[in-house]
């Protein structure tokens, strides 16, 4: 980040985390990193721990903490994507053209990508709030996003639904990276904790984004070592049938490798009209998981319980 004599050392932020412009840049880098296969914060010139960027209640610290928790919340999804790379030679992140080859509008888009089958990530690449240490704007910045054709999309943060095949102006407050979920996506999540070891035995929640059929395979293993190469893992295949509002899941492999305990739940994530606080409505169907699988019918009239987001 500092200036130097070599070609790779020609930064503009001599004050590092004491410079608000650099703080905003770092937050945007950190948000981008949360949706990469490997999430680490490396560097040389300045400390990069979140507490160097402010205190609780300050915008930079709170933004870093929020996306850090979101990464942990999505670990069942992310770990499953990594498992699919090994098991099926899939990719965790892809150009939009891979998923939407029939939409010519995506072929030249280089600043958006798919993270797994369900998430469309749109990193912020320009400063919106600070420049040369001065606050630029107090209004929420906007980021142009193209939503690929062929399906509809949900705003990850507000659950507002959009038609595909159009450009929109997505809100990009400092604590949010524009993020969209494909219609029909099934996203396994877990309540975030301070350490992945503390997630063992916690309830795994499958979040369903209705409007199309969908499925997802939850992959779980010991979390370390090479036992997975010897078959030491479990798979939970979750299938969403949209028309009857029905969820079906089955299990393969030994349940001793299930890190999320023996209880899973599913939430139907729906568009909510007039929700200024960013809330959502959802319904819940839960079942004790066993080798015979489970079937749960979800009805529209059950969509009534507010779901708290971290």
Task: Write out key terms for the chains shown.
15% helix, Immunoglobulin-like, four-stranded mixed beta sheet, six-stranded antiparallel beta sheet, single chain, 2 domains, 310 residues
Could you characterize what this model shows?
The chain is an alpha+beta fold and 310 residues long. It contains four helices and 20 strands. It has helices spanning 20-33, 59-73, 75-88, 96-99; strands at 93-94, 113-115, 119-121, 130-131, 134-135, 142-147, 153-155, 161-162, 166-171, 179-182, 186-189, 204-208, 214-221, 233-241, 246-253, 263-268, 281-282, 284-288, 294-297, 305-306. β7 and β8 (161-162) form a beta hairpin. The protein is globular, with a radius of gyration of 20 Å.
Nutshell version of this structure?
The chain is 15% helix and 28% strand. The protein folds into 2 domains: 89-182, Immunoglobulin-like (Sandwich); 184-306, Immunoglobulin-like (Sandwich), CATH 2.60.40.
Catalogue the unreliable spans.
Answer: 270-293, 299-310
Assess the beta-strand content as a share of residues: 25-35%
Oligomer: single chain
CATH A-level architecture of the largest domain: Sandwich
């Amino acid at each position: 980040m500092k200036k130097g004599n070599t070609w790779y050392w020609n930064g503009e932020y001599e004050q590092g985390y004491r410079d608000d412009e650099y703080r905003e840049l770092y937050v945007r880098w950190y948000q981008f990193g949360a949706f990469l296969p490997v999430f680490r914060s490396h560097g040389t010139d300045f400390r990069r721990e979140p507490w160097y960027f402010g205190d609780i209640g300050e915008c930079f610290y709170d933004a870093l903490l929020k996306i850090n928790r979101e990464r942990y919340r999505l670990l069942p999804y992310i770990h499953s994507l990594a498992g699919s790379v090994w098991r099926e030679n899939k990719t965790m992140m892809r150009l939009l053209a891979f998923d939407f080859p029939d939409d010519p509008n995506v072929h030249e888009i280089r600043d958006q990508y798919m993270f797994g089958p369900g998430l469309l990530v749109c990193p912020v690449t320009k400063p919106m709030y600070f420049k040369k240490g001065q606050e630029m704007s107090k209004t929420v910045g906007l980021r142009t996003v193209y939503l690929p054709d062929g399906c509809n999309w949900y705003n990850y943060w507000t659950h507002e639904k959009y038609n595909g095949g159009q450009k929109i102006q997505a809100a990009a407050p400092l604590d949010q990276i524009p993020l969209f979920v494909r219609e029909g996506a099934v996203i396994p999540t877990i309540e975030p904790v301070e350490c992945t070891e503390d997630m063992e035995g916690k309830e795994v929640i499958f979040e369903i984004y209705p409007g199309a059929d969908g499925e997802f395979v939850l992959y779980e293993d010991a979390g370390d070592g090479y036992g997975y190469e010897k078959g030491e893992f479990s798979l939970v295949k979750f299938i969403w049938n949209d028309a009857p509002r029905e969820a079906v899941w089955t299990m393969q492999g030994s349940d001793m490798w299930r890190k999320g305990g023996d209880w899973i739940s599913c939430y139907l994530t729906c568009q909510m009209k007039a929700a200024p606080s960013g809330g959502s409505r959802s319904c819940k169907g839960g079942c004790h998981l066993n080798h015979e699988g489970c079937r749960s019918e979800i009805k529209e009239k059950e969509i009534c319980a507010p779901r708290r987001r971290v």
